[in-house]
Amino acid sequence: QLQLVESGGGLVQPGGSLRLSCATSGFTFDYYAIGWFRQAPGKEREGVSCSSRDYGSTYFTDSVKGRFTTSRDNTKSTVYLQMNDLKPEDTGVYYCGARWWYCSEYAYEYHDWGQGTQVTVSS
Q1: Confidence (pLDDT) at 27
Q2: Backbone phi, then psi, for 27, in 5-degree steps?
Q3: Beta-bridge partner residues of 10
Q4: In angstroms, rounded to a whole number, what is the distance separating the alpha carbons of residues 117 and 6?
C-alpha cells in the first residue's frame, strides 16, 4: 500500500509563504508522479501542480505560476510545494496524490491520497 502524508499548512497573511511537504512510503518513489491538489469549501478538488522523475514539475493552475514551485527529493521520497505571495483565493485543503509515472491534472486519475493539510490565507 502507498502512504502519503502532507504537512506544512497553516494560517498566513496575504503575501506570506508556506512550504508544504508530501512524504511518501510503501512504494518505489521513482515510478510515481506526485500531484498537488487543493479543495476549497464547497468546491471540487483542483489540480495545482505535479512532479515526476523524468519530466520535472508542471503547473496546472495559471494563477499559481510564478508563485508556487514544486520540487522532488528522490532520496527522501518527498515532494515539496513552496508557496509564495499567497492570496486569499489560495485557501483550501491541499492534498498530494500518487499515480503511475505520468502527471495528470485530473484528480480521478490518482490512486492514492494523503489526508490533506489546511492552508488559510487571511488578514
Answers
A1: 85
A2: -155, 170
A3: 119
A4: 6
